[in-house]
Each structure stands twice: as C-alpha cells, then as structure tokens.
Automatic annotation (TrEMBL):
It comes from Mycolicibacterium komossense. This is Aminotransferase class III-fold pyridoxal phosphate-dependent enzyme. Pfam families: Aminotran_3. Belongs to the class-III pyridoxal-phosphate-dependent aminotransferase family. GO terms for molecular function: transaminase activity.
Amino acid sequence: MTFSNIMDSNSYQGDSSQAGVGPLIAARARMLGPASRLFYDRPVHLVRGQGSHLFDADGASFLDAYNNVASVGHGHPHVVDAVSQQLATLNTHTRYLHGGILDYSERLLASMPAEIDQVMYACTGSEANDLALRVAEMYTGASGVIVTADAYHGNTTAVTAISPALGAATTLGKNVRTVPAPDSYRIPRAELAARFAADVAGAVDDLRGAGFGVSALVADTIFSSDGIYPDPSVLKPAVDVVRAAGGVFIADEVQPGFARTGESMWGFTRHHVIPELITMGKPMGNGLPVAAMAARSDVLKPFAVGVPYFNTFAGNAVSMAAAAAVLDVIEGERLLLNAASVGAALRRDLAHVAAGHPRIGDIRGAGLYIGVEVVADPDTKTPDRAGARWLVNALRERRVLLSVCGAAGHVLKIRPPLVFSRSDVDWFCTEFAAVLGDF
C-alpha cells in the first residue's frame, strides 16, 4: 500500500481482532475496501456528539480537538432546527427560484471584500476547487498551477493532480509545480516571505518554459497540510509574482475560513491580500455537504458565459438553511472572538506544559488552528513522525482526539470546533502534560 501523508500518518494499521470494535472493523474492510482509512491504533466507535465533546458506544466522553467539520459544535440545536424545518418544508435544486440561496449569498458576500461579488455553489471543497481551476484557466488562458509541496486540495481528478500530500500513488499534473511551504520553524522570519516569493518565481519560470503559462497559485492560507504555518507576511509577495505573470490567486479557505483563525472571518485577510477566487467547504454547513466558490465577477465571466454550470445538490434549500444557521451561530455566539481568546489561551498553556521538553520544537497557530512540532533533536530540528504518532495515540487512550500533518507527519494538528472552551483547554493541557511525562 502506498503511503500518503494526509491519509496515513495517523491511520489504523492493525487487524480486526480488537475487542468490541473488531466486527465493525472487519465489516468495514470487507465492504468499504482498503482505500477507506480509520484513525488511531485503536479506532474509536462514536455514537453521539455535543458541542466539543464526543461519546462512544460505551458512553465514554472524548474531547474533540480535531473536527472543523462540525465548526459550531456537534449537534448544535440551532443548526438542527433550521435543517429539520427546511427539510420538512421543501428541498429542491437551484433551477427553481428560492429565497434561501439569495439571502445566504448576500450574507456570505458581505463578509468578503467588495471586489468579491459573485458566488457559485458546490457540495464539497473538492468540487469548489475543481471549479476554481476551470474558472482560472478560462480567465487567464493558461493552465500552469503552483501549489505547496505538501498541499491537499481535494479528491476529484483535477484537484488530486494538485494535491501532493496524497502520496506517490497520485501523479501530479504535468502543468503543476510545487514550492516548499513557508516553514517558519526552520527559516528565519526575516527571510520567510522573500524565500517563498523566490520559490514561486522559479515555478513561474519553469511553467512558462514548459509552455503552460501561469493560471493560478492555489494556497490554503494557513498551510494546514504542510504543517500549519500562520505567518501573515508570506503570501502577498508571492501573489504579486503570480499576478505579474498573468495568473490569479485561489485562496482555499476550507481549513482557515469561517472564523477559524480568530482574526477575521477568512484566512486570507490576515495576509492583506484579496484573492480573485475563494473556495470553501467543510465548516460551511456544520456537517452537511455544502461548498462554494466566490469570485470577482470579471474573473468569473469567461467561464460563466461560456459554460452552463449546474450541480444538482449544490445550493439546495436544506444546505442553504444549514449554512445560514452556521453564520447565525458564528455571529450570535461571537465565535470569532472565542477562537481568538481560547486559541491564545491554548497556545499559552501548551507552551507552559511543554517548556523544557526537548522533543516539542515549536507551538504555533492562529485562533483555533494550532500546530505542535515534534522533533527528534531540537538542535537539528529533525522531524519525528514516530513520536508524533505516539503522542496522538497516547492522547486517544486518554480520550483526547487530534491528528497530525506536515511533510513528515510530525506536527500535531489541533483544530477543534469553534465552541472549544476554557475548560476544554484545561482538559486538553492536563492530558497533554500526562502523556509528555511518558514521552
């Protein structure tokens, strides 16, 4: 089986003999096949969720420090009510008139820069990124795409071709060039932006030389699968290089969007750059499959007038009700402020717990998106994949759920629901201290 950083660094690799869940694992393997991965050395059988907590089949409670899909918390009653009421009333596609999609679109676009004035809907972030690539190619007349070296942008054929994190079994497109992520742990901050821009410039030259031209730089604005690099200085110079070559910037906001970074609704805002195209997905409907691509109308026009676009389930009335309810909760419960304050408290307390531990090399993040760098040697800053995996599974045994990311699967990825509380921080740090004692 070919290894994939994003799929396999924390995947279950055992047999189906585990007590309690063994039959489920065996049935899953038989019917879903080997491509469908599970988490942890000892998979978790979850049956219920509430807020930032999950519960297994035995009733044990787990702290969810991983799931941005349920962005406003598992089972949020406002989202449940909105979805239930709409499903009981009407659910149909967007080729009939319906006010829900218009009301939501107005609210969504109002949260973005004025230049971003139109939106198209999809069901998943993968579809939204696929659509953005098509729009960018028609606008620029070029096909060359630049991504970071361990990027993940989805699983359609087009976006798999720009997702090196999926591993060696996936072939990148001939029109795709990768650049190293802006590694703020290993590169001095004074050099970070210039080095990233220089790498992008090199990719631009290579794409031009190969005859592809430059269509787009596609970046997740917190570089989540690369290892979580929140420095806000790095993107604008690189975007300027791409635009000078005739390309556009596609901001993949599936991970940093919807208040996740605690500073603004969208991750790109931290970088003081306005994308031509913005894609979003997972957190948008708190678990319902809904996604979108927002755009400058002049960038969208060549595609929109030339290609009839229809996606049966995209923008349906129930999904729009869910998405609108998510915005209600983010605004009404002040979750942007919560992400900022609780995220800062979590980073501070983690730093205190990890102080002096040589194998915790760095703690970084923005809002409620935090990376903890696990290293074999603090002097050489050598990534420690095995150590990170051990920590993740040790925390799982103490009923705290998180995962990993990074080029070597060596960065602990902490990305809880936005309703994560100060008491959740205490729970997390208590268990983190306990496992560090044995690490």
